[in-house]
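TL;DR need structure tokens for one chain.
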Amino acid sequence: MKLIRLSAAFGTALLVGCFISGCSREPRIPPSAQAVQPDGKRKAAPDFDLKDEYGKSVRLSDYRGKVVLLDFWATWCGPCRIEIPWFSELERQNKNKGFAVLGVAMDDEGWKVIKPFVSELKINYRVLLGNDQASHDYGGLEALPTTFLIDRDGKIAAVHVGLANRKDFENGVEQLLQAPAKANSGRISLPSFFIRTK
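>> reply
TL;DR here they are.
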């Protein structure tokens, strides 16, 4: 009986660990949050060309001049479900201030599972269907959610892996919205610590 209780407790701890830290179908990395980096330390976010639910192509470069919260998530990810309403609220509060949320769904099953989920959570921002190329370009996405705060010049200002603190997102967005866009920044590659080497 003690063994059964111990197994149940261990199983529960594992489940809670995944729920808090982030979901992964491989061994997971611990959650991490990054403060907004000084402008000189930021690197350009890789551009992408992904489709929305209407089949329209969307590129990150379309949003140059805006602060962007770029969230990689999946319908099966518990922590993603917690964060999404926060992002909807940020979109509501800041969309007229030069801010946008882009959600990139990484579900293998595609729109047939994403559309009902978007409807259920009443997601009010643009959702795109992710692919392996986008995942690779953003460092391999070893855990979901992985969320990037991108400044008006298209540079990565902060990265949150796993379930982050709501206040971290709010403070980061507010800080980036207060900063004006700099001169046209050229497209450069993602910092080496995001790139997985084989």
